[in-house]
Amino acid sequence: MKFEIIVNNIFDDVKLDNSLNPTDNKSVLGIINDFENGEWRYEKFQNYVWDNIKETALSHSERQALLNDGAGTILSESAKKLRLIESVDAIGRGSEIAEIVLYGIMKDHYSALPIVPKIFYKQNTKDEAKGSDSVHIVIESEDSFSLWFGESKFYNSIENTRLDTIITSVKDSISLEKIKKENSIITNLSDINDFDEISDELKTKIKASLSQDVSIDKIKPILNIPILLLYECEQTKTGTALTVEYKQGIVDYHKDRATQYFKKQIQKCTDVHLYEKINFHIILFPIADKDKIVDKFIQIAKVYRD
Known about the structure:
By secondary structure, the chain is an alpha/beta fold. The chain has helices spanning 42-57, 60-66, 71-79, 95-110, 118-125, 160-173, 176-188, 191-194, 200-209, 234-238, 244-268, 290-305, and strands at 4-10, 26-32, 35-36, 39-40, 113-116, 134-141, 144-155, 223-232, 279-287. The protein has one domain (4-305). A hairpin with a 2-residue loop joins strand 6 (134-141) and strand 7 (144-155). It is globular.
């Protein structure tokens, strides 16, 4: 991980409300970028985005085919798959940045395999609004795996009204219809056959486990929902260095946001069958200036496209 992790706990260790239940299926990950010469490191963040774009914008076979052509070709082909929402007021502006960062975190922190490259899939099916923002598999042992359906958001703020929107999206992602849809995508794509990290025996087991004939009730104990909240942060915008005070301020805020988020999620998901079996991971990542990041991302993408 190129960034510093300042919170990496089960939710029970950081929650500010002991009345919440269930909580043992929840965890909190807090990540921060650093500063250089008195300014938040925008270039380091952009480099991370472009270092990881291929995992979600290109299929496994495309990535392999382009290896001999060099990084420039890979980035050029990846940039062509982006939607690039340029209007400042448009809903979802910068959403692909959050998706790419989530793919990077899933690889770096959770050692996850990008089984479904979501930007590639959405671009090729024109299905931008439906489905999870990331689909990964983590190999737990020689004969076991866990399934990860991620949500990613890039917001100017993550105050309480924003949390409601996120929870609605998360609840939809764990509905019977959506889980079956994602499982179907995984089993129908050829990408899963291309991963050398997965043994042939485990590939067969994964496809059998995710078959449409298998009850979703059997899937939920291995289902993980990582929820990345990439958000503009006033402390980060005005900060100039990774001081003890800055870090503690972010840690305290992350504890508060995680508590408020899971409190709302528990209330809203009481009717989800086997909710307590699904694992949820809230990932909080503050940035200094959303518009500056998105504008630069679009500028770079246009250069690679040309």
